[in-house]
Amino acid sequence: MNHWLILPILLPAIVGALLALAVRNDIVLARTFSLGTLVGLVLLGIMQLGTAADGVTRTYALGNWPAPFGIVLVLDRLSALMLLLTAVLGLCVMLYAINDCDRKGAHFHPLFLFQLTGLNGAFLTGDLFNLFVFFEVLLIASYGLMVHGGGASRIRAGIQYVVINLVGSSIFLMALGLIYGTTGTLNMADLARRVALIPAGDQAMLCTGAALLLVVFGIKSAVVPLQFWLPGTYANTSGPVAALFAIMTKVGAYAIIRVYLLAFAGGAEVDTFSAAQWLLPGALVTLLVGMTGVVASRNLSQQASFAALASMGTTLVAVAVFTPVAESAALYYLVHSTLAGAALFLLIDAVKLRRGEFADRLVDAPRFQNLGLIGGMFFAVAIAVLGLPPLSGFVAKLLILDAVADSAYWGVIWATVLLTSLLGLIGFAFSGSLIFWKSRQLDGLVEPTQPTQLALPMVAIGSLLGLLVLVTLFSGSVIGYMDATAGQLFNPEQYIEAVLGAPTDGAEPLAKGEK
Amino acid sequence: MNVALIILLPFLGAVLPALMIRSGRDACATVTGAINALALALLLAHAPEVLSGGSVRADWSWISRLGLNIQFSIDALGLLFGTIILGVGLLVVLYARYYLSADDPMGSFYAYLLLFQGAMIGIVLSNNVLQLLVFWELTSLSSFLLIGFWGHSPAGRQGARMALTITGGGGLALIAGLLLLGKIVGSYELTTILASGDVVRASPLYPLILGLILLGCFTKSAQFPFHFWLPHAMAAPTPVSAYLHSATMVKAGIYLMARLWPVLSGTELWFYVVTFTGLVTMLLGAVIALFKDDLKGVLAYSTVSHLGLMTMLLGFSSPLAVVACMLHLVNHATFKAALFLNTGIIDHETGTRDISLLGGLRKYMPATAICAVLAAASMGGLPPLNGFLSKEMMLEEAAHRSFAGSAWLLPVAVTVASVCSFAYSLRYVTDVFFGKPRQKYPQGLQDPGIGLWLSPTLLVALVILIGLFPETMLGRPVRMAAAAAIGGEVPKFYLALWHGVTPALIMSGIAIGAGALLLLAYPLAHRGWNSLPRVAAKPMFDFGIASLAGLSKQVTGRLHNSSLQRYLFVTLVASLLVGGITFAQHWPTFASGTRSVLPTNPVILLAWVLLIAGCILVVKMHANRLVALLLVNLIGLMTSLIFVYFSAPDLALTQISVEVVTLILMLLALYFLPKHSLLEATRAIRVRNGLLSIIIGLAMGGLTWAMLTRDFDSISNYYWEQSLPGSGGRNVVNVILVDFRGFDTFGEIMVLGIAALIIFALLDGLLNGPMRRHMLTWTSGEQYSPTRHPLVMVVVTRLMLPLSLMVAAFIFLRGHNEPGGGFIAALVVSIALIMQYMASGFGWAARRVRVDYHALIGGGVLIAAATGITAMVFDRPFLTSGFKHFHWPVGDFELSSALAFDLGIFMTVLGGVMLALAQFSKLGEEITGEQINEAPMDYPPGKATVSATPLAQGAKRAGHGQPKGLPANNPNQDERI
Amino acid sequence: MEFLVAAAVMAMTAAGVYLLLAARTFTVVIGLTLLTYATNLFLFSSGRLAINQPDIITDLASPHADPIPQSLVLTAIVIAFGMTALILVMSVRGFFESGGDHVDLLDTSGPADQEHP
Q1: Looking at beta carbons, which residues of chain B come within 8 Å of C35?
Q2: DSSP H or E run through A73
Q3: From CA B123, how far away is CA B256, in angstroms rounded?
Q4: How much is the mean pLDDT over chain A?
Q5: A100 pLDDT above the threshold of 90
Q6: Quick check: C71 contacting B, CB < 8 Å?
Q7: Is the pLDDT of residue B790 over 70?
Q8: Helices (H), chain C
Q9: CA-based R_g, chain C, Å
Q10: Distances B826 to A137, B50, B179, B832, B859 between C-alpha atoms, Å
Q11: Is residue B122 helix, strand or coil?
Q12: Which of A178, B432, B842, B895 is most buried (CB neighbours < 10 A)?
C-alpha cells in the first residue's frame, strides 16, 4: 500500500487546517509551516516523478473501495509532472510572498495551502465528480487569494472572477449529469470503456455532456471566447497570487488532455466527441487576442496577464492537434510558460513596490531602486515569455512548430505563432525601454511607498529563472520525459487496466470490493 | 572541444567585465580584450588546417528529437568571417576604452559587446541551422542592448526598438524558412542541407522557403525596403556602429545567403529577387549617402549601399561573383570600420559630426586626416587601395551580365552607384579635412591619444597592404572561402591592381571623373535632391507601430470592457453553441427514450405550479429584492418537496436547512445592500437576455426530458449491496457520502471551511481595515418597526436552543442509517444559534457562545482527516472505514469510523456557518455605531440606536445613503481585508 | 411526471440565467441560486425518478432509487451554499468599496442615491 500517493493532497490540507486552527496570529510560525510544507511537497514531487518515470500507472483506492465504485487516485507520468511543477512553483512564489504580501490580509497561508490541495487533488484524481470537487476547492481558495488585500478594483475583478466560475461550476454539474445519465459511471477509466459500448441513441447526449465539459475546461484555461475573466483577475490581484495562478489555467489544459485522451478517446467504431474542432480555432484566437493585449496594455500587470493568456493559447494550440509529438511539445511549453509567467508577475510586483505612486503604469517616471538589477532580470524574463533564445521558450516554440507541421492546419498555426511573437516583441520592447531606459532620462529617484527587501524576492525570481535555464540545458532529457508521457497518454488501455484490472465486459459492474 | 571554446569564451567571459569594472576601467578593458584575443588565437590556430582545404568539426547531441544539436564546424567561409568578427572586435575593444566617457557604465558595455561577439561568432561557426537560429536571434537581442546603451536619449531607445522589431521580425520569418528547409531535407545539419540543393530547388515549397529565408537575410543586412533601421541604429556609441553596423552584424545576412548559396541560388527566382534587391539597395544607399550631412549618416547609407553591392553579387549566381563578394566583404570591413572609428574621433574631439559645421581639420589633426583620406579613397574605389580591387571585380561581373533581357541595365546602374560612391567619399574628405573651418573649434584641438587612433590606423594599414599585395594577403583565404561558399571549385582568377584595359577599368574611370564633377556641382545637386518628394522611413515606421498599438488598444478595449454582463452573455452563448452544435452533429443517431412515464400526482402538480409561478414572478418582480428573496425560497422549498416525493429524504432535509441559513444570510446582506434595483437595462437588452435564457432553459429542459425517458445501467447496485456489509449503514446515500465517496465530502467540507475563512477575512477588512472609516459613515435608509425585541421571540429562541441541540444530536447519530447526518445536524444547530444572535443581540450571544469558530473549522477538517489517517496506520487506504454494532438503551447504533468522519463534517459546517453569520451580524452592529450591547435587540441588529450616533447623524444630515469619500475605483491595494 | 420535472428544470434555468445577466450583485446572486436549483434537480434526475423507494436498506431485494446522484447533489448543494455565502459577502464588501452594488462597481453616487431614500 503506497500511501505516498495521497500525501500531496493530505499534507497541505492538514497543515492548512492547522494554520487556520492554531497559528492565525503568529505570522512567523505560519510562514515556517507553509515553507516547510512546500519543501515537503517539492521532495514528494521529485520522488513521485521518479516513481512514475518507470511508466507504471499506480493507483490508490480511497476507502479501499475498488474502482469504479470508490474514488481512486491515479499517479502516472502526467500527474507526477503536474504535481512537481505545482510544488516548485508554490515554493518559489511563497519565498516571494513572505516578504510582507502575506501580511496584507487574514488567512493568506491557509488559503495558499488549500489552493495547493485543490490543485494536487485535481491532478491525481481518477474520478470526474471528484475532479469537480477539487476544482471547487482550488477555485474557492483562489477566490480568497485573489481578493487578498482588498481595494475596489480588486474586489470588482474578484466578483467577476467568482461569478463566471460559478456559472462554470453549474455547467460542470450539468455535464456530469449527462455523462452519468448515459454511461452510469463517473470513473474516467470506466467511462473510457463504457463510452464505446453505449447505444448509438444515447451518443448525442453523451457527446453534449463531453462538449459542456470542454466548455468548463475552456473557462478554466481561458480559451477565447471564455477568456474574459483572466486579464482582469491576473492584473488586479497581488503579484504573488498572480504568479501562483500561472498554474491555475494549466489545470484546465491538464483536464482537457486527461479527459479527451482517456475518457472520450473512444474507439474507431464509435464517433465520440471531437474536442479538436472547437479547441484549435479557439486556441489560435486566444493567442492572437493575448498578444494584441500585450501591445495594448497600459501597465505591466495587464501586459503580463495578456502574455499569460497568449501562453495558454500557445499551449492549447499544441494540445488541440492531439498527436503524441504535439502533446509532448504542449507539456514542455506548459512547464516553461508556467515558470516564466510566474517569474514575470513576481518581477512586476518588485517594480510596483519600488515605483511609488507610479506603480507599474506605463508612464514616464524617474529611476527607482535596483533599476539595473531588476531591468536585467526583466530582460531575461521577457525573453523567456516571448520564446526567444537562449531560454526554453525558444526550444518550446521550435518543438510546437515542428510538431504541428504534419497537421493539416500547419500553415495558419505557424503564421499565428510567429506573427504573434512579433506583436509580443513590440509590446515588451516598448514597456521595457519605457520603464528601465527612459527613466534614466528624468532625474531624481522615486521613493518607494514602503520599505522594500531585495534579497529574498530576488532569490525567488532568480530560482524561477534558474529553473528555466535548467529546463533549457537539459531539454534533451526533459523532452524525453514528455515524449514518454505522451506515449502513455496515447495508450489509455494501460491506464484503464491499472485502474479497473483486466478488460471484462465494460457494461457490467466489475469485481466487488474485498473488505 | 576548443572549437566550442571559441564561442563559449565570449559568453562566459561576458560576466568578467561587469565584475572587473570594480577595479577600474583599464582592468575592465584589458580582461575583455584578453578574452577576445584568446578566442581569436583559438580560431587562427585552425587556420592552416582549414586553408589547406580541411574543416574542423565538433558535435554534441542536445535535443536530438528536434534535430537541434550543438554542431560547430570551421571551414574557410567561417574562418574568414570569424577572423573579421574577432579581429575588428579586438580593435573596437581597445578603441572603446578611450572613447566611452567616465560616466558611461563601461562594465555593462563590454559585457554586451562580448555577448554580441559570442552570438556573432556562433552564427558563422554553426553547422546546424536551428542552432544558427539561436545565435541569429541573440545578435538581434544583444544589439538591442548596445544600440540602446544610451537609454537616456530618445534616439537610442527608438533606434534600438526599431532595429529589434525589423531584425527580430525577420528572424521569425527565418525560423519558419529554416524549419521548412530542414523538413524537406530531413535534417537540420548544415552539411547535409548543402548536399541536397537539388531536392530543395525541386520542392514545391522552394519559393516559400526562399522568400522566408531572404526575408531574414534582407532585414538583417538592411536591404531595401528594410534598410531604414540601420541609419537609426547609429544612435549607438560609435564603437558599436563600427563593429555591429559596418563590420559584422549587418554581414550576417550576407553570410547566410553565401552559406546557403549552393542550396538556394541558381534559379531564376533567386537571380531576379536577390540581384534586384541588391541593386536597388546599392543605388539608393549611394544616392542618399551623398546628401547626408551627419558623418555617421553618410557612412550608414554608404554601408547600406555596399551591403546591396554584396547582395547583388551573390544574386549573380556565378562563382566569380561570389569571389568578388568575399573580397569586398573583407575590404569593406577594413575601410568602413576605419572610417567609423575616425568619425568617432572627430566627434569626440570637436563635439560635432555635422559636415556643415566641420572643415579644415587637417590643420588640427593631421594623423586623423591621413587615415581618413586613405580609408575614404578606398571606399571611393581609388587604386592602389583594396576598395579598388573588389569594386573592379564587381564592375567586371556586372559588365557582362544582362538583366531582364537588357545588356546595359546592370552596367549603367552599377556605374551610377560608383559615381555617387566616389562623390560622397570625396566629399567626406574635402568638406571635413580641407577648406576652412566653418565653426570655432574647441581650444587645443589636436590628434587624440594613441588609444583612439591606433585601431583605425591599423585598419588603414590593412587597406593599403591588401591593395598593394592582394594575392599574398588575401588570395588564399578568399579563394578558399569562395570555394566553401559555392561548395565546389572556383574558376581561376588572379587578384591584382592591373588587369589591362577592361570594361571595368573604363567604368571606374567614368565613375571617378563623373563623381568629381558631381561634387563640384554639389550645391545644384543638393537643391535638386531637396526638391524631390521624400519618403521618410522613420515616420512611416512610427506611424505603423502607432496605428498597430492604437488598433490593439481599440480591439482589447472593446473586447475586455470589464462588463460582467457582457462576459456572462458571451460565455453562456458559447456554451449553448458548443453544446447545441455537438448535439446537432449527433442528431441523426439520436433515439428518444422508451422508459415508461410515471403517473402525475396532484400534490406534486400543485408544488410544480407554485414553482413555475415562482420562477415567472421572480423574473417579473426581482427589482424588489425582499420579494425576490422570498420567491426564491419558495422555489427552493418546492424543489425539496420534489426531492421528498422522489425518494430523496436526505436531499430534502439538506435543501431545506440550507434554505433557511441562506435566507438568513441574504437578509443580513440585504440589510446593507439597497433594497431595490433599478431596471437599468434597455428594453432591447432585456429582450435579448430573455431570449437567451429561454433557449438555454428549453435546452436544459429538453435534455432532462430526454434523460428521464430512457433507461441506462449504472454502477449503483453495488452500493445498495455493499452498504450494509461493507460499511454497516442502512442509509446508502449517507454511506456513500461518508464512506464510498467520503473523499468528495472531505473536499466539500474544505470548500465550506475555506469559504468561511474568506468571508471572515473580507468582513474583517471592513471591521478593522481602513474601510471602517467609510463604513461607519454609512446608514441604511430603511425604516424598521420601532418596537424592539418582542419578548416572545427572545423567550422562544432561548427555549428552542437546547431543544434544537437535542434534535441535532439525534439527526447526527441516526445519520448512518436514517436520513440525517453531520451536515444537517450542523445546520440545525447553527440555525438555533443564529436565532440567539438575532433575537438577543450579538453581545449577549457572543458572551454566551464562547466558541472559536476558526478552531471548529480547522478541528473539523483535522478530525475528518484523522479518521482517514487512522486507516492508513492499519495500512489500509485513506478513509477506509471500520464499524462495530452496539446495543444502546436508546436503540441500535452502528458506531463506525464513518461516524467520526461525520463529526468532522459537523464541526466544519457548524464552524463555517457560524463564523460567517456571526461576523456578519457583528458587522451589522458595528456599522450602526452601536457598541457591543447587552440588551436584546431587534433584527436588523441595532437599527434603533442609529439615531444616537453622531457619526450617523452627520451622515443623515449630509443626506447620503452610502459610504462617502470613496472613489469608484479605489486603486489602493494595501488595505487589509 | 417526468415532464413536470423537465419543465421545472427549464423554468428554473431560464429564470436563473435571466437574473444572472442583471446589473446588480444581489440579483445576480438570486440568479445563481436559481441556476443551482436547476442544476441540482438536473443532476438528481440523471438517476431517473423513483417514487416511494427511500434509500434506506430494509431488504436488499426491494427496488430502490439510484443513490449516487443523490449523494452527488448533496455535495453539490453544500458547495453551492458555500459559494453563495461567499459571493454575497463579496458583494457587500464591493458595496462598501464602491458605494454601489453594480456588478462592475461602476457606481459613483449615481443610481445608489436614488435607491436610498
Answers
A1: none
A2: strand A72-75
A3: 9
A4: 91
A5: no
A6: yes
A7: no
A8: 2-20, 25-45, 67-98, 111-115
A9: 19
A10: 21, 86, 64, 10, 14
A11: helix
A12: A178
Residue B224 has φ and ψ, to the nearest 5°, of -55, 135
Of the candidate ranges B414-423, B773-782, C37-46, the one whose mean pLDDT is the lowest: B773-782
Instruction: State yes or no: pLDDT of A515 exceeds 90.
Output: no
Which residue from A110, A118, A513 is facing B757, i.e. has the nearest CB?
A: A110
- What the block records as the C-alpha cell of B907 is 464541526
Per CB-CB distance under 8 Å, the chain C contacts of A162 are 83, 86-87, 90
Chain C residues in contact with B696 by the CB 8 A cut-off are 13-14, 17
For A76, the grid coordinates are 502516472
Q: Is the pLDDT of residue B249 over 50?
A: yes
Pairing assessment for the beta strands B68-74 and B883-888 based on DSSP bridges: unpaired
Q: What is the pLDDT of residues B958-970, one digit of tens each?
A: 333 334 333 334 3
Whole-prediction pTM = 0.92
Grid coordinates in use for B882? 471500520
* End-to-end Cα distance, chain B: 60
The pLDDT value recorded for residue B516 is 93
Whether residues B599 and C77 touch (CB distance < 8 A) is answered with no
Q: pLDDT tens digits, residue range A358-369?
A: 889 998 888 898
Residues 6+ apart with CB under 8 A from B644: B652
Cell numbers for B336: 568602413
Collapsing DSSP states into helix, strand and coil, what is residue B796?
A: helix
Q: What is the pLDDT of residues B852-881, one digit of tens each?
A: 888 888 899 999 898 888 888 888 888 887
With beta carbons less than 8 A apart as the criterion, state whether B243 and B89 touch. Answer: yes
Q: B891 - beta bridge partners?
A: B888
Mean pLDDT, to the nearest integer, of A334-349? 96
CA distance B80 to B482: 10
Distance of CA A132 to the CA centre of its chain: 16
Count the residues in chain A: 515
Which residues does B640 contact at the CB level (< 8 Å), separation at least 6?
B651, B652, B653, B655, B656, B659
| Integer Cα distance of B351 and B440 in angstroms | 11
Residue A306, chain B, CB below 8 Å: the answer is: yes
**What are the distances in angstroms from CA A243 to CA A118, A304, A334, B243?**
17, 10, 14, 41
pLDDT value of position C105: 64
Per the DSSP assignment, residues forming a β-bridge with A58 are: A75
Q: Is the pLDDT of residue B931 over 60?
A: no
From residue A470, alpha-carbon distances to A313, A466, A478 in Å are 24, 6, 10
Q: Which of B123, B548, B758 to mutate to test the interface with A (most CBs of A within 10 A)?
A: B758
* A72-75 vs A58-61, strand pairing mode: antiparallel
Query: Does residue C53 contact residue C62 with C-beta atoms inside 8 Å?
Result: yes
Angle between helices B683-708 and C2-20 (to 10 degrees): 150
What crossing angle do the helices spanning B683-708 and B564-585 adopt, rounded to 10°? Answer: 40
pLDDT digits (tens, 9 = 90+) for A236-276: 999 999 999 999 999 999 999 999 999 887 654 556 788 88
As a whole number, mean pLDDT of residues C58-74 equals: 83
Q: Cα(first)–Cα(last) distance of chain A, in Å?
A: 15
CA-to-CA distance for A359 and A351, rounded, in angstroms? 7
* Ranges of H-type helices in B815-852: 822-840, 842-848
Average pLDDT (B393-421) is 90
- The amino acid that residue A462 corresponds to is G
